[in-house]
Amino acid sequence: MSETEDAPARLETVRKAIRRAERTAGRPEGATTLVAVSKTFGPDEIEPVLVAGHRVFGENRVQEAEAKWLTLRERYADVELHLIGPLQSNKAAEAVALFDVIHTVDRPKIAKAIAKEMAEQDRAVRLFVQVNVGEEAQKAGVALSELDAFLAACRDDYGLAIEGLMCIPPVDEPPAPYFALLQKLAKRHGLAGLSMGMSADFAEAIPFGATHVRVGSAIFGTRPRP
Ligand SMILES: *Cc1c(COP(=O)(O)O)cnc(C)c1O
Q1: Ligand 1 near 113 CB (within 6 A)
Q2: 189: closest CA among 213, 153, 157?
Q3: Cα of 226 to ligand 1 centre, how many Å?
Q4: Which of 77, 182, 190, 204 has the most neighbouring CB atoms within 10 Å?
């Protein structure tokens, strides 16, 4: 990543790298949606990327996202917002109202709260289940051993249509085996969506069928905090 380029230039570089990876993998152009992760960046830094024509953005905190996007959306109504960070059930109402896609469904309490809010607000949000692929104690996501039961509960107990799976592989290991694992799990459950790949490894996720890559610093630059 070049810090001397501006965000629109880096966006274009990332877009091209995605197209190249799609071609190399023999996947159709546009098979992978770029979620531009704008967490920690303010409206002034986000707007040039909107002006460049990008419309799909990711945020990891509900309140931070509300503060920025309620205003930006008045001017860019066709923005598609993705929640990629952990969700607390007391924020489910705000999350369902603001976001179009939630990538981090990972426990019954959240699934239930989302289902209740979708019914009350008469709003359909697209949903991904986060999987703790590295079985890391500190990381969010459904444990591998609980995925079957959790997906069944989402469907049968809460009436939720899950679109796909999401993962954040362990930072200190090559990600490819984890991308392969998530692809296998999604296939086994008949799920079309695969949210995987970040700035450092999005091109590696594409051969494994990533439908959504979540790219922050490669577009917006280095963040002050994670
Ligand atoms: C911050 C974040 C990203 C983007 O990370 P970069 O390395 O800056 O691309 C992607 N996914 C999740 C879940 C994140 O929290």
Answers
A1: no
A2: 153
A3: 8
A4: 182
